[in-house]
Amino acid sequence: ETGVTQSPTHLIKTRGQQVTLRCSSQSGHNTVSWYQQALGQGPQFIFQYYREEENGRGNFPPRFSGLQFPNYSSELNVNALELDDSALYLCASSSWTAKETQYFGPGTRLLVL
Amino acid sequence: AQSVTQPDIHITVSEGASLELRCNYSYGATPYLFWYVQSPGQGLQLLLKYFSGDTLVQGIKGFEAEFKRSQSSFNLRKPSVHWSDAAEYFCAVVRNTGTASKLTFGTGTRLQVTL
Fold first, then answer.
1. Which of A4, A55, A109 lies closest to B100 in CB terms?
2. What 3 state SS string does B30-51 have?
3. Which residues fall within 8 angstroms of residue B30, CB to CB, at 6 or more apart?
4. CB distance A41–B106 less than 8 Å?
5. What region does B72 belong to: left with phi over 0, alpha with psi -120 to 50, or beta?
6. Which are the contacts of A57, defined by CB distance < 8 A and separation ≥ 6?
7. Is the peptide bond before A8 cis (omega within 30 degrees of 0)?
8. SS3 of B86, please?
9. pLDDT, tens digit, for every residue of A41-58?
10. What tens digit of pLDDT does each residue of A22-33 get?
């Protein structure tokens, strides 16, 4: 069984740029959630995708957007990067019927300069 | 509003000693509760979860947790800590908002193990 994978592992961008992070869900899972973890904090929910649609969102501005593909993989896009966007971005997958139980990938560490 | 509190930011225990990490939650209904562990630079690994039923739940790596509704607590325990248990531990509660399931995390407890 393949776990959740994310790419890239690390990324450095400058303020104002755009970034795309990628996630492949665990086999058998069809729901993907994204979280942002700032240094020294617990993860914060960004949004959740199911059937290629966003079905829930946390307190993040519209410049945070996502996609889910037919194979259940997902992308997180962030436009107009700000310094405060520097964080570990975590993807979690689950099955829709048990979406409360979420399994996390290793994360992408984003540094905005 | 739903929240999770982990009162201890940092705990140090000796290898072989017992461990208890505290977690308190604020939630109106019966909560779904989780403990995750995060090693440095890594993602989160699910240790155990509580949805209903027996209030003492067993997890991986020898961890267990006890749900106490009267105290709004879900403390994590391990009888004998190993050096490899050094990591950050997060307690979380699920909130179902509409059709989405959102995990709300505490701020974490960093565990240091001395030899």
1. A55
2. CCEEEEEEECCCCCEEEEEEEC
3. B52
4. no
5. left
6. A46, A47, A48, B100
7. yes
8. coil
9. 999 999 999 999 998 999
10. 999 999 999 999
